[in-house]
Design goal:
By secondary structure, the protein is an alpha/beta fold. It has helices at residues 16-31, 39-42, 57-65, 89-94, 105-110, 115-127, 140-144, 148-163, 192-210, 212-217, 231-235, 252-260, and strands spanning 5-9, 46-49, 69-72, 99-102, 131-136, 174-178, 220-223, 242-245. It has one domain: Aldolase class I (TIM Barrel). It contains 12 helices and 8 strands. It binds 2-phosphoglycolic acid.
């Protein structure tokens, strides 16, 4: 059995006041719909990643009322020190944050994230028993050059090198998100078949390192122009266990519909 993870990445959008208003509205939207499972069962799997200044206790409480956890968009591999602009995982944990996003393609593209730095962040997150969404995905040029699997294999190797042959035990959830760069923020979603093909490849390759059982338990999320309209078709695929939603997660009504899916 795999955990479903339904996540929203706000990127550099919304401040604290907008975040509070958002969760109040999301709660209202969800209350207006019949819940498909008791909230306690679904809470761990619904996460929003706001900017760091919207991770405080008041916003955590508002999110909890909508059965959503908050996560940070990044963490550093050291606990503290001279790392301007970075976030300490231990401090995130101390303020009640249990989820982190690692190696998002925008970090890779614009902020020099490499497989090596991403792996160090993952290692830190696992030591702290934080739940993780770790992102991989090819660019359009790489896909057109027939390099999709080679790129995914390289990125996955960095992820797997940290695990040393075993999924970490415990309540924290470790998940992997396939986010083709050409589908992010472009409105060009991968077709369910394209996404399934990439996910099946990731699952197969993961099984070589972790064994079939652990690979079978690793939630694989798809991200890239997911909307309330296309989420169900993606989630219907056998290896797609969740979604990481950017633009559509900024609209409470859209995100409520995706959670309902
Ligand atoms: P998008 O972003 O849904 O706006 O394409 C997805 C992501 O970057 O995680």
């Amino acid at each position: 059995m795999r955990t479903r993870v339904l996540a929203g990445n706000w990127k550099m959008n919304f401040g604290p006041a907008e975040a509070l208003a958002y969760f109040t509205e999301l709660e209202k939207q969800l209350n207006a719909r019949a819940p498909s499972a008791p909230p306690s069962q679904v809470a761990a799997c619904r996460v929003i990643f706001p900017p760091a200044y919207a991770l405080g206790p008041e916003i955590q409480k508002a999110a909890a009322r909508a059965h959503v956890k908050l996560g940070a968009q990044n963490l550093h591999w050291e606990e503290k020190g001279a790392f301007t602009g970075e976030l300490s995982g231990a401090t995130l944990k101390s303020i009640g944050i249990e989820w982190v996003l690692i190696a998002h393609s925008e970090r890779r593209q614009f902020f020099g994230e490499t497989d090596e730095t991403a792996a160090k962040r993952l290692s830190r997150a696992l030591t702290l028993k934080l739940s993780v969404i770790y992102c991989v995905g090819e660019t359009l040029a790489e896909r057109e050059a027939g390099l999709t699997e080679a790129v995914l294999a390289r990125q996955l190797d960095a992820f797997l090198s940290v695990l040393r042959g075993k999924l970490p035990a415990g309540p924290a959830i470790l998940s992997l998100a396939y986010e083709p760069v050409w589908a992010i923020g472009t409105g060009k979603t991968a077709t369910p078949d394209q996404a399934q093909q990439a996910h099946a490849f990731l699952r197969k390759k993961t099984a070589v390192s972790l064994g079939a059982d652990d690979a079978g338990r690793l939630p694989l999320l798809y991200g890239g122009s997911v909307t309330a309209e296309n989420a169900a078709a993606l989630l219907a695929k056998s290896d797609i266990d969740g979604v990481l939603v950017g633009g559509a997660s900024l609209k409470p009504d859209q995100f409520a519909r995706i959670l309902e899916t």
